[in-house]
Amino acid sequence: MSARTLGPDDLQAPRPIYVVWETTLRCDHACAHCGSRAGPSARDDELSTEELLEVADSLIRLGSREVTLIGGEAYLRGDCYRLIEHLTAGGVRVTMQTGGRGLTPNRIRRLRDAGLAAVGVSVDGLETSHDQLRASPGSWRAAMEAIRNARAIGMTVTSNSQINRVNKDELPATAAALRDAGVAVWRAQLTAPMGRAADRPEWILEPYMILEVIDTLAEIQRWALAEAERAGTPSSRAFHVRLGNNVGYYGPHELLLRSRPGQAEAHWQGCSAGKFVMGLESDGTIKGCPSLPTGPYTGGNIRDADITQVWAEAEAITFARTRGTSELWGFCKSCYYAEVCRGGCSFTAHSTLGRRGNNPFCYYRASKLRRQGLRETLVKRVAAPGAPYDFGRFEIEVEPWSDEAPAPAPKRLPVIA
Question: Are 59 and 19 in contact (CB under 8 A)?
Fold first, then answer.
């Protein structure tokens, strides 16, 4: 059973069972779609080693069971091994999400020996698309090498992909490459208009494209299960496609793509920010989810607030725990699934439309509009200011449905300062 699997006791009170911790903004990439705008430099005020260990102790006391270290690149901090050892000694499962550029055989071995349980390597399409999105020639080859390095020492390896207009037509080929490389689980999420991605609206999927994307992911999952059956492999050990929280919702493939092998069927049950999930930024900022924009969703900072009290009381953290449907607006307000969905992914809705409660990236919504001969598109109105985890504002426009293929996102774009 996964450390993140919720049992009956977990439902009695909110607890940060799963924590995603950005330990540095320093990165060996400067990805053109990075939500945190990470790059060569760390933040000026990142937590010291001693502060990291104090936060780790707080998470252990709060009952956290899994911590994923991110950046930037978490391995660029020399004290990451000490942090992993400290958390592991406290009974916490530690994983890492990485672009993989510097995940050499020596480094992944040191991480494993420190206690790292699994690594997720981000692969955003095939080589040309990935390298364009990562703004780094050779990045795809480095990521695939990182997967091989981790697999060579017996590490569990997963992969994340951001889906956008640059790579959406490469999903089957990307899945095949990852499966052949030995990736166990492939997690698909949408590129949301946050950070540098907000500067490139032509990369963001139009809302109606969610139908094609999820249909394709379902085809991939059925293919993988059929391949496993032909090979006599248990379905639990097949290549598995999982939907990220901002890929939604309630279409014909919902159970197939959200359920885990050997567990009860699952479906989207609303935003988990501040309920079972916590996000931490490298300067000590506390959020209910790592992807939430910093400005409107900072609950406090570990340097001047008690993390237990922030978790229990800060409105920016607790907003998803007891909310009903009163904050929903637009299509989501009158949706059949409003009571359980509550507007889908909060970070995606807010970074797209300027507030949560109305999420256009929804299968049920797009399919219902298609039956009416309509589809939604996005128009950029306000630019993002240029800070980590920032966003601008788009507006929804409704137009007649067209089966004509939209123009693809350009493969080469000028760098936007």
Answer: yes
